[in-house]
Amino acid sequence: MSPEDTAIYVLKQVPLVDGHNDLAGEIRSKFKSQVDKVDLRRDMSKYTQTDIPRLRKGRLGGQFWSAYVPCNMQFTDAVRVSMEQCDIVKRLVLKYPETFEFVTSAAGIQRAFSRGHVASMIGLEGGHSIDSSLATLRQFYDIGVRYMTLTHTCNTPWADASPVDLNSTLVDHNGLTDFGKVVVKEMNRMGMLVDLSHVSKKTMSDALDIAESPVIFSHSSAWSICHHHRNVHDDILRRVRDNNGIVMVNFNPEFVNCFPNKIEKVTATLEQVANHVDHIRNISGVDHVGVGSDFDGIPNTPFGLQSVADFPNLFAELAKRGWSIGDLKKLASGNLIRVFHEVEEVRDSMKNMKVFPHEEIIPEEFVSDIPCRPDL
């Protein structure tokens, strides 16, 4: 088979699960959260990088849809707007039942794929969305959220974000606080995937120190190729291997192709994205790499990967480089589904051991100057 035929063959056999897509955020910002004003059955390229004709062309089989709110909503409206983002995802599934199927388990991904549906899951992008409350975290799980990114670009009262690696004066906690470690433990207990994209290197290390379940990076790339603070260093990639987790490669040109000098618009190519995939495979192993495009969360895209229609191009490029059909299947979803299963197994084991919900409250000194938390 040609590389192009190999790509299509693989994506017919197994679901392609993308770790991160911000379509819900685009609907919020461009259509005021009014799903009825959006017709995903037609070409939406004027507004978004995602629509149904293009995702069908791209052979998408599963998607973690991001529930994202900006950092300027931390301590104000983050919980409410995060809930509204989850609601947008569910309304999209309701509006297009012939295409999308809401799932909350690893097994559900395969069931949806077998019915010709795109398995649709929710990832909460940023720990500021829980307002330092374990109860709020649990309620997000109950409505179907299956991963949480511990931070976005801002520190939370319990974890440092990746910009601190660029500027040490931004450090608040030197990684995870004791309460932040409890957040990770509670996510393990519930069966929620711990997402380490966006966090500082020390936060990554602290989370890996205590995680009882495999972790994910839902949309990150390789620091050795592009020295961007959003990317993952080789020593962390080795720890992801030891943790049995996964790094899902981001398509954002700023994370893919670092330039020595600032230019107005960073560009990247499909081949450069493939270089990141290859590097992570070489360091972590082929069982620990996936795809996390960040479509509709990035202002520009790599040449050859302009939208959700273009996923097969990446698989064809890797086939040209000698990737086997079996390894391409792992990249598409085998690795992510394995991680998801293992997270569920840890959850079930804890349930059998009668491990009860954590009840810690964030110490007052971390939130004492926050006007919306006067009752601590």
Automatic annotation (TrEMBL):
The keyword Disulfide bond applies. GO terms for molecular function: metal ion binding; metallodipeptidase activity. InterPro entries: Dipep_AS (IPR000180), Metal_Hydrolase (IPR032466), Pept_M19 (IPR008257). GO terms for biological process: proteolysis. PROSITE patterns: RENAL_DIPEPTIDASE_1, RENAL_DIPEPTIDASE_2. Its EC number is 3.4.13.19. Gene3D superfamilies: Metal-dependent hydrolases (3.20.20.140). Its main location: membrane. The keyword Transcription regulation does not apply. It is a lipid-anchor; GPI-anchor. Its cofactor is Zn(2+). Keywords: Dipeptidase, Disulfide bond, Glycoprotein, GPI-anchor, Hydrolase, Lipoprotein, Membrane, Metal-binding, Metalloprotease, Protease, Zinc. It comes from the Eukaryota. It catalyses: an L-aminoacyl-L-amino acid + H2O = 2 an L-alpha-amino acid. It is found in: Membrane. One of its GO terms (cellular component) is side of membrane. Homodimer; disulfide-linked. Belongs to the metallo-dependent hydrolases superfamily. Peptidase M19 family. This is Dipeptidase. It comes from Capitella teleta.
